[in-house]
Specification:
Low-confidence stretches of chain B: 1-6
CATH class of chain A: Mainly Alpha
Helix content of chain A: over 70%
Number of helices of chain A: 12
Oligomer: heterodimer
Number of strands of chain B: 2
Order of helices and strands of chain A: HHHHHHHHHHHH
Largest sheet of chain B: 2 strands, antiparallel
Low-confidence stretches of chain A: none
Radius of gyration of chain A: 23 Å
Largest sheet of chain A: none
CATH superfamily of chain A: MetI-like
Number of domains of chain A: 1
Strand order of the largest sheet of chain B: 1-2
Number of domains of chain B: 3
Strand content of chain B: under 5%
Helix content of chain B: 55-70%
Radius of gyration of chain B: 31 Å
CATH topology of the largest domain in chain B: MetI-like fold
Distance between the termini of chain B: 51 Å
Structural class of chain B: mainly alpha
Chain lengths: 269, 415
């Protein structure tokens, strides 16, 4: 399998073993993602296979229960606003960082990326403590601000990567033809880096939409997000409605992923 | 030869460099101005909150805010004998005000960390303040609890009158202060924090090794596969990365349950005769974490493997190297940058896990993050939470700096 002609018999066996192992690992990676789907349409409230009868009752439960629908709505709102904020700030920052002669680029990058590697509990408790006196705990604003901070690195990285293939001479050409910097940006630069910005925005949305710990600390009953609702459900008593919620979350993630893959393909094509 | 040398020698007019820098300054400032909103935003909503939280690890406001007069009265005390009457009078006055402000319990809780029993001593004196007769207060304090006559107790109050304390940070590494203020190891039955620290490092290490063992061959196979198949295999690595961490943990909760899928399969295959306990175990925690971290290890290794020319292995073979030796001595060393990037990233991220140990792990599998959350939510002990956060942050940042040094922030790619 994918071996040169001179490979010996033992090499072929060895390669076969490695390829089999790799496929097993890939099944290990992808398999658990799809466990929740069949369980969410099982009629029985037990998490056992094989599934004997199918039913949509857990989805009906989900959409008829105000707690679940409210949390879904809260998640969508918080993710939308933090995505807008993170995309704006992250794109501007990437445009600056990509310019030649940006001062202390390494240090600024290290700081911009740090929300990605910071233990989320520390971020969450810090925000809880700092936002409390400012009246931002138990508000949507506080959650949006904290999530936007977590999402900025993802936007910066994707926009920087699309700027790395951008030809700076195009900016100069635009300027030499009489366009001002703002007009050059909107008519030349922005259309070319838009795929990068959209990828960043999709990632930012996913970060906020899936985030549990910060939301756990910053939200009260009214702003409770879908992941928080799920988390407390799993802690107390795991029930099939959680499987329906998990399936919905996975569907959203897969949709975002497919969207991103399509954008990447468009950019290449 | 000498002429060429002089031609390539650096031009050393000091004025020119300065002039160039001056001319470049507006551009640099404009570039910085673009990044400034994001920087300020991160400083205010991310760095400042973390900074404020971490300072609670050394903040010690209770004694000098609740016992201001006692703090002053104890300033001249030499720590040798029971303090004089004026100190007892100051304490009685302070506690009377504390009772009005409902702050006595806060003080008692803080002092109880230093010496068990302090809470009840403070509370019982506060309750009995009205019953004190005129005359010297010291004997009446000592009549309530003989400990009030001992210098050790007053030394604790005196030491904690300072606005900063090493107590929480010392405790987070199983150290404490004796009556004289010297640093000592805490008693065996209270020494839990080094165990938590070691457990966190151990779990993160196990996960890193597991992702490398599973991920390296997988990345190798993806890098060998024909473009079309490789694209599909890569999708299988990227898809989990996009799925919510909570959903993946939920999936593992379902899989690992006693009546869960794994046990059903094992029973059906006859590999085990009775159901295994997989939930709330170290094995379950490490398995779920390995599953979640695997893409972070695979992707950097894969991107390095793609840059290694296939001709090198053929060249090694044609020069007589056996297959394994060609792989191990020519191919494997070149993958090291990817291995380092992937493993460091996985190790950093594993150190801060909270959700997965909380849902899949048992009490012995809870990591530092879980204890930070518990100290905030259950014990309301902000100082201890902050001290543990300092410890976690110190480890995370050390490895992040190593990562920046070896790999660089610009090299992080997403998908």
């Amino acid at each position: 399998m994918w071996l040169p002609a001179y490979a010996t018999r033992s090499e072929r066996l060895c390669r076969l073993a490695v390829v089999t192992f790799a496929f097993a690992v890939l099944v290990f990676l992808v398999g658990p993602l799809f466990v929740v789907f069949p369980l969410s349409v099982s009629k029985d409230p037990f998490f056992t296979f094989p599934i004997e009868a199918y039913s949509w009752r857990w989805y009906a439960d989900f959409f008829q229960n105000a707690r679940w629908t409210q949390s879904l709505w809260n998640s969508l709102v918080a993710a939308t606003f933090s995505t807008a904020l993170a995309t704006l700030l992250g794109t501007l920052a990437a445009l600056g960082i990509a310019r030649p002669g940006f001062p202390a680029r390494k240090a600024v990058m290290a700081l911009m990326i740090s929300p990605m590697i910071m233990p989320v509990v520390i971020v969450a408790v810090g925000a809880y403590m700092f936002f409390g006196p400012l009246g931002l705990t138990n508000t949507r604003t506080g959650l949006v601000l904290a999530h936007a901070g977590l999402a900025i690195p993802f936007v910066v990285i994707t926009v920087l990567s699309s700027l790395s293939t951008y030809d700076a001479n195009l900016t100069r050409a635009g300027a030499s033809l009489g366009a001002g910097p703002v007009s050059v940006f909107f008519t030349v630069t922005l259309p070319l880096i838009l795929p990068g910005i959209v990828s960043g925005a999709l990632l930012a949305f996913a970060v906020s939409f899936d985030e549990v710990i910060v939301a756990l600390f910053l939200t009260g009953a009214e702003q409770r997000t879908l992941p928080v609702q799920m988390f407390s459900g799993i802690r107390d008593q795991i029930n099939p409605t959680i499987m329906a919620a998990a399936s919905l979350l996975t569907t959203v993630s897969i949709a975002l992923f497919v969207g991103l893959s399509l954008i990447r393909r468009l950019r290449r094509g | 030869m000498a002429d060429t040398m002089s031609l390539t020698a650096p031009y050393t007019d000091p004025g020119l460099g300065a002039a160039l820098r001056r001319a470049e300054r507006p551009n640099r400032l404009r570039a910085l101005a673009l990044a400034l909103p994001a920087l300020v935003f991160l400083l205010v909503t991310f760095a400042a909150p973390i900074g404020v939280f971490l300072t609670t690890a050394v903040r010690n406001p209770e004694v000098h805010e609740i016992l201001p007069q006692t703090t002053v009265a104890l300033e001249g005390w030499d720590g040798q004998a029971t303090p004089g009457e004026e100190v007892f009078a100051a304490l009685a006055a302070d506690l009377a005000r504390a009772r009005q402000n409902n702050t006595a319990a806060t003080l008692g809780k803080r002092l109880n960390y230093e010496s068990p029993g302090m809470r009840s001593r403070i509370m019982s004196v506060t309750r009995k303040l009205d019953g004190f007769a005129a005359g010297p207060l010291a004997p009446q304090f000592i009549a309530i609890d003989a400990a009030w006559g001992q210098p050790d107790l007053w030394a604790i109050i005196q030491r904690n009158a300072a606005p900063v304390t090493p107590y929480y940070l010392l405790t987070s590494v199983d150290l404490g202060q004796d009556a004289a203020g010297g640093i000592v190891r805490v008693a065996q039955d209270q020494a839990v924090f080094l165990d938590i620290l070691g457990r966190t490092l151990w779990i993160a290490g196990l996960v890193t090794v597991a992702t490398l063992l599973l991920g390296f061959p997988t990345a190798y196979v993806i890098s060998l596969a024909p473009a079309r198949i490789a694209g599909f295999l890569l999708l299988m690595v990227l898809l989990p990365l996009w799925t919510s961490l909570l959903v993946r943990t939920t999936a593992w909760v379902v899989l690992l349950q006693t009546d869960g899928v794994i046990n059903q399969v094992l029973l059906a295959l006859g590999l085990t005769s009775e159901k295994l306990q997989l939930m709330l175990t170290r094995f379950g925690t490490v398995t779920a974490m390995t599953h979640i971290q695997l893409p972070f290890t695979i992707l950097p290794i894969l991107s390095v493997m793609k840059t290694i020319p296939a001709g090198q292995l053929r060249a090694a073979r044609s020069l007589g190297a056996p297959a394994f030796s060609a792989f191990w001595r020519v191919y494997a060393p070149q993958t090291l940058p990817g291995v380092a990037a992937g493993c460091l990233m996985t190790f950093i991220l594993s150190l801060g896990y909270y959700i997965t140990p909380a849902l899949v792990g048992g009490p012995r599998d809870q990591m530092i993050s879980n204890f930070i959350a518990t100290y905030i939510n259950r014990d309301l002990n902000w100082g201890m939470a902050a001290a543990l956060a300092c410890l976690l942050l110190f480890m995370t940042l050390s490895i992040y700096l190593l990562f920046l040094r070896l790999v660089g922030a610009e090299r992080i790619k997403l998908g």
